[in-house]
Design brief:
The structure is a homodimer. Chain A folds into two domains: 32 residues, no CATH class; 111 residues, Winged helix-like DNA-binding domain superfamily/Winged helix DNA-binding domain (Arc Repressor Mutant, subunit A), CATH 1.10.10. Helices cover 53% and strands 10% of the residues of chain A. Chain A is built from six helices and three strands; from the N terminus they run αααβααββα. Chain A has a three-stranded antiparallel β-sheet with strand order 1-3-2. The termini of chain A are far apart. Chain A binds a DNA duplex through helix 4 and helix 5.
Chain lengths: 147, 147
DNA sequence: CCGGATCCCTAATGATACTG
DNA sequence: CAGTATCATTAGGGATCCGG
């Protein structure tokens, strides 16, 4: 338990308070802060993650159990699903509810914060669907050009 | 040259034609295809990439040279910038122009296809900026709960 | 100045076995 | 069922040197 998660769990450089406050400073106004230790970068790294995007998009449909997510997301391992869900829970995007039954049941759903992300993630998915042909074509051309 | 790129270059399973055609099949209509070998998943993996997002967002401002990108994106190495740019070029999102001068000059800009992604990537960045406080708070609560 | 090719190391991820 | 712990693997990414 020392290198889990897309980023380390407790992590972040010690004294980030000062850095955080001047986070958006001394750059031209049209550009957002791209510094590595910036909140935005860290959040982006979590959201724009291979599995996180899929989980969020799936939870659009409503509450799902661990096993359901596991089956829906082709190729994810139990481990990565756990890690991904924990990170999302940690960031307040997903709520985890344990029902003290036997056999145990655990349900996941988007929080209201998580739901504010839905539009954007869906936009990404939609974009991918709409442009996959163009991209495939571009790849073929690129390959053909024998760069 | 055998393990570069966010995904392998020539890659993709051999006979994907059949799979591709039935790609969106036998699932409920409200759900997109999440299969690992699906185009959408592969494209998503490329777009939702730590560096790709940053590069695309930066190229919003216009044409940039390799060195400029390198300096703007805090923490990226020459190598990863090269790899990222080549992937984006390969997918037809970025155009690379070499000027046969000495010293050489290479410029990168979004293609029209790449520009169709801008709205979405910016939305992601904006979302992150707007909600960073909530997320930081959620993390602190989560940590406090000593889960 | 813009990268390509290599070497190398660490972090990320998969597989498996175990538990409440 | 829903994880956790451990081990093994590998792919991501940095450093460096080289060529155009």
């Amino acid at each position: 338990m020392a290198q889990e998660g897309t980023s380390a769990s407790p992590g972040y450089p010690a004294g980030t308070a000062a850095e955080r406050s001047e986070c958006r400073a001394d750059r031209d106004p049209f550009q957002w802060d791209v510094r590595e230790d910036c909140q935005v970068r860290q959040i982006l790294d979590r959201i724009a993650d291979k599995w996180s995007l899929l989980v969020i998009a799936l939870l659009d449909e409503g509450t799902l159990r661990f096993g359901e997510l596991s089956r829906e997301i082709d190729g994810i391992s139990k481990r990565m699903l756990t890690v991904t869900l924990r990170n999302l829970e940690r960031d307040g995007l997903v709520r985890r509810t344990v029902y003290p039954e036997v056999p145990p049941r655990v349900e996941y759903e988007l929080t209201s914060l998580g739901r504010t992300l839905l539009g954007t993630t869906q936009a990404l998915v939609t974009w991918s669907e709409e442009h996959q042909d163009e991209i495939v074509r571009a790849r073929e051309e690129f390959e053909a050009a024998a760069h």
